[in-house]
Write a sequence for this structure.
């Protein structure tokens, strides 16, 4: 179970302000391309599941890393996201081949692909994979320590570019969501950055074809 705090920022100005405020704590920046796969009938999406290939690197044709992930049964309440997630590394060249020919994903030697076939019947000849498309994301990763709560947190500040618009979000995976949310809210207040609790995830926005709160 992945547990994350998700706080939505209203615009690019708020994103820039928070980036500047957190800059001394910046550790790395990832350029990500996210692609989603399903059957033509959207079988996975109907079951609140998302199969994603994430490619890392600025060059679409030469990713430095790729990760296959299955997320299921998401719940998002008051800015706290809980979702069942499994991940596996994927050879970047194979990931590109599957992006070009999505049906190939069904033949990948992967526990995730076998799980999807067994539980949802997707990936075989009867329901081959199709690529639904996706979005691009720039993720800045910060290490933030809060002495008052005794927490060391990894913060992820996202700029997510869909075909229909751009969203901005601060995320933090944590085993102590109540404490972490309090730390993040105080951090944003100190930075003078407005925010709201996220009420939808990125995949939900992508499937809706519009920016959701």
């Amino acid at each position: 179970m992945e547990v994350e705090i998700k706080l939505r920022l209203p615009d690019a100005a708020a994103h820039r302000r928070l980036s500047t405020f957190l800059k001394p704590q910046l550790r790395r920046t990832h350029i990500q391309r996210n692609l989603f796969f399903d059957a033509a009938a959207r079988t996975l999406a109907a079951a609140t599941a998302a199969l994603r290939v994430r490619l890392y690197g600025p060059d679409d044709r030469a990713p430095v890393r790729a990760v296959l992930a299955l997320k299921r049964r998401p719940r998002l309440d008051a800015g706290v996201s809980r979702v069942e997630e499994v991940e596996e590394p994927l050879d970047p060249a194979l990931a590109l081949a599957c992006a070009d020919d999505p049906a190939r994903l069904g033949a990948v030697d992967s526990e995730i692909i076998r799980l999807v076939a067994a539980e949802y019947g997707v990936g075989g000849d009867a329901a081959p994979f199709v690529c639904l498309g996706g979005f691009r994301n720039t993720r800045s990763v910060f290490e933030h320590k809060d002495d008052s709560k005794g927490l060391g947190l990894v913060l992820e500040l996202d700029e997510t570019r869909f075909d229909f618009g751009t969203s901005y979000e601060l995320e933090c995976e944590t085993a102590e969501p109540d404490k972490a949310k309090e730390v993040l809210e105080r951090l944003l207040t100190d930075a003078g950055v407005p925010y709201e609790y996220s009420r939808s995830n990125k995949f939900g926005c992508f499937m809706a074809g519009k920016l959701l709160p």
About this structure: The mean pLDDT is 97. The chain has two domains: 2-29+136-208, 34-134. The domain at 2-29+136-208 is CATH 2.40.320.10 (Hypothetical Protein Pfu-838710-001). The first helix runs from residue 12 to 22.
